[in-house]
Design brief:
By secondary structure, the protein is of the alpha/beta class. Helix content is 48%, strand content 17%. The protein starts with a strand and ends with a helix.
Length: 346
């Protein structure tokens, strides 16, 4: 890609900011030499880091502000008091057309509140959702919502299904991705009413969606479907359990290989294979959750990630822009706006 692409970076967001953000930009620049960065943050802290980094001076600009959103700030307070914060100014740049998207490792709730207030939602979308990629037995799948909406009605779930399906086509390159609703069982009568309403509509819709039906928790890592749709409460719990389980097994494996001389010898013999497993399951590879449904590209990096993880989050933003994700969602919704679920099952 030769055309110019500018991204806003909230350089003060995250546990290890601003060092992590600048180092992440440095890594991302090697992968995406056509990308330029607007770095929002305290110039007195950013300038020394930029000076020692291998960032192309012609392709980055520091936009000074000494205000930032704290990690424990309440979204409503951040929205009112953070108008000059690095996070808010980075989002404003997207609204004003100065950049094509924003990447932040800052406070998730504040980022969503600010982004929704400044950028608004796409036509036909009631609520934006947090979507991300999950490693599975079959490759990768998309899961949403991962925490933006604790409670969802059937309309929200149907909209999530549409956005997730477009996401999978645009990012994973799947011609016709399968979609499933996460439930406590695969039977049609399982789950609460809103889930059943959403499922009934998706089964009878003329939308070009390959609806699999209900899926259970073990279907997510199994890769039963390409897109897993759920409410934000369930999705966030599933995400945190997956992350915790990965760390648990890594700890178990490390302890087992250190338990005896033969075990240590076995580790030496299996080192190359274990490296492949570690790379396949490295959470930094999947860092970068997309706020889908907003009228602008917004990517949330994990707050505790390192430079490699942040660079991958930047890569997600680049993919969203270059694949025209929002334009594809707009087209889908404009031509195939779903009726109320009640009408579909009446």
């Amino acid at each position: 890609m030769s055309q110019r692409l500018v991204l806003s970076i909230d350089a003060m967001g995250g546990d290890n900011a601003p060092e992590m953000a600048i180092q992440g930009c440095e890594l991302a620049q090697e992968r995406f030499p056509f990308v330029e960065f607007l770095l929002f943050g305290d110039e007195t802290k950013l300038e020394p880091l930029v000076a020692t980094a291998r960032l192309d001076r012609a392709r980055h600009k520091i936009v000074h502000t000494d205000e930032f959103v704290a990690g424990d700030a309440k979204p409503a307070i951040a929205l009112r008091a953070g108008r000059k914060s690095s996070m808010r100014l980075a989002i404003d740049a997207v609204r004003d057309g100065a950049s094509s998207g924003v990447v932040s490792a800052g406070n998730t709730g504040a980022l969503m509140a600010m982004a929704k207030f400044v950028l608004k939602t796409l036509p036909g979308i009631d609520r934006p959702a947090i979507a991300s990629l999950f490693p599975t037995m079959r490759g990768e799948s998309v899961m949403l919502d991962l925490g933006a909406n604790v409670q969802c009605n059937a309309d929200n779930l149907v909209q999530f299904a549409i956005m997730g399906e477009v996401f999978a086509r645009a990012v994973l390159g799947l011609e016709r991705p399968s979609v499933g609703l996460l439930n406590v069982g695969s039977e049609e009568m399982k789950g609460h009413e809103e889930l059943r309403l959403a499922a009934a509509w998706l089964r009878n819709t003329n939308l070009p969606i390959l609806f699999h039906g209900f899926v259970e928790g073990d279907d997510v890592p199994g890769g039963t479907v390409d897109v897993v749709v759920t409410d934000g409460f369930t999705g966030n719990v599933a995400l945190k359990i997956a992350e915790g389980t990965s760390k648990l097994y890594s700890s178990f494996l490390k302890g087992a290989f250190q338990s005896s001389f033969l075990a240590k010898l076995g580790y030496v013999l299996a080192k190359s294979a274990l490296k492949k497993v570690r790379l396949r399951t490295d959470p930094r590879r999947y860092n970068g959750a997309m706020f889908v449904g907003l009228n602008g590209i917004v990517v949330k990096s994990h707050g505790g990630t390192d430079a490699l993880g942040f660079a991958n989050a930047i890569g997600v933003a680049v993919d969203m822009v270059t694949h025209g994700l929002n334009d594809k969602i707009r087209k889908e919704l404009a031509h195939l706006a779903p009726p109320p679920p009640e009408a579909a099952i009446g």
